[in-house]
Write a structure and sequence with these properties.
Elements: H1 2-6, H2 19-22, H3 24-33, H4 46-54, H5 69-79, E1 84-89, H6 95-107, E2 113-115, E3 127-129, H7 131-137, E4 144-146, H8 148-155, E5 158-162, H9 169-181, E6 183-186, E7 191-194, E8 200-206, H10 210-213, H11 217-220, E9 223-227, H12 234-252, H13 261-276, H14 295-312, H15 319-330, H16 337-349, H17 357-378
Parallel strand pairs: 1-8, 1-9, 2-5, 5-8
Antiparallel strand pairs: 3-4, 6-7
């Protein structure tokens, strides 16, 4: 904890502040309020962490995660044990967002992070060396460069491991002993780094990426798994999207105000219908596109609309600004999705009357431009 407090705060003009800096006032207020028992090494008690994540209007604590409270409680309780936590779900279900805020509230440092990719190696979860010092002096603690996992073990804090299933299987297997024994061997120095109380790991995995490098049964057994669902009703998803769009607009100082709720509701409804393969009233079938239409993408579409409206439009998000993002989101995976999107426009959106007409026209215009470009390319 001492090292966390000494960590220099990022400057105010950085593009994205870590959660523990951005919401420092809320964490400080909760620390003063918190009279509950804290697990060793924790900044806040589990009750206070829950209040930080789910929000409290009376204390003016904003909700960081809008969803099932019980899932949040299970996640927090898991981290208070010796079991690691795995958050899994569809893209855009706030796995990384929840992981970051859990780490900020529990350890005061959300930047202990390993990003899983095809290029991730065992050194990313163990240690590497300063080779100039290694050649000059041989193996020593001075020449050793610890990974975030190594430092979390040493300090007794949380470490985040994003997109575990994108890592090669040998990297995943290296986690098994670490999570079981809570110890990391450094054979070059003849020492073992033992995890201090407060150490734990939060992993995330995308259910759409299971085919990349699915976790072995042995690794899965080292985690308590919490599945984060896609919002199943329009109102909940609208609430999430409006909240995040407003926050992003403020953080990035976008030159247009957040879009009205009616515009957000249309985007969310389109996403939900294309995801489910039917209209929200259940009366019509809809052909879904090949790609995932996540809540995070809906947020991105509307935030980008604010930038378009402010810099190139009339200062307020309109249908053309929204259509630009929708078009790219639906057809991003496969050119055949242009036909899927056109079918949705003609069979669903067009028939919804005057309220949807401006958005329909703006979307149809982009589809026409895309098809014309494809025809020109073939020539």
């Amino acid at each position: 904890m001492a090292e966390t407090k000494k960590r220099e705060a990022p400057k105010a003009d950085v593009l994205r502040q870590p959660a523990e800096i951005l919401f420092a006032h809320e964490l400080q207020a909760l620390e003063k309020w918190d009279k509950h028992a804290k697990p060793e090494g924790w900044r806040l008690s589990p009750k206070a962490v829950e209040k930080y994540i789910l929000g409290d209007e009376g204390m003016k604590i904003s909700a960081k995660y809008v969803g099932h409270a019980r899932l949040v409680q299970i996640a927090i309780a898991t981290l208070a044990t010796d079991r690691a936590l795995m958050l899994i779900g569809e893209p855009g279900t706030a796995k990384s967002w929840l992981s970051e805020h859990l780490a900020a509230a529990i350890s005061g440092n959300s930047l202990m992070l390993v990003q899983g990719t095809a290029g991730t190696t065992e050194e990313h979860i163990r240690y590497t060396w300063n080779y100039a010092l290694l050649l000059a002096e041989g193996p020593s603690t001075k020449a050793l460069v610890p990974s975030p996992v190594y430092r979390a073990l040493e300090q007794g804090s949380l470490v985040r491991f994003e997109e575990i299933t994108r890592c090669p299987s040998e990297v995943q297997d290296a986690l098994i002993t670490l999570l079981s024994e809570k110890v990391l061997a450094v054979p070059e120095l003849g020492v073992h780094v033992h995890g201090r109380r407060g150490f734990n790991l939060i992993g995330t995995a995308n259910t759409r990426d299971r085919g990349v490098n699915d976790m072995s049964s042995a690794l899965k057994r080292r985690f308590n798994i919490v599945v984060l669902p896609v919002p199943d009703d329009v109102d909940t998803e609208v609430k999430i999207v409006m909240k995040r769009v407003a926050e992003i607009g403020t953080q990035l100082k976008l030159p247009a105000p957040p879009p009205a709720e009616v515009a957000v509701r249309k985007v969310v409804q389109i996403f939900q219908e294309l995801r489910r393969g039917q209209t929200t009233d259940g009366k019509q079938k809809v052909k879904p596109p090949s790609g995932v239409l996540s809540t995070a993408e809906a947020i991105s579409i509307l935030a980008n609309g604010m930038a378009l409206a402010g810099h190139f439009g009339g200062g307020k998000v309109d249908e053309r600004d929204i259509a630009a993002g929708l078009h790219g989101a639906v057809i991003k995976e496969d050119s055949k999705d242009v036909a899927v999107w056109q079918e949705y426009l003609e069979n669903i959106m067009k028939k919804r009357g005057s309220e949807w007409a401006p958005l329909y026209k703006a979307c149809k215009e982009l589809v026409g431009e895309t098809k014309k470009k494809d025809e020109d390319d073939k020539k």
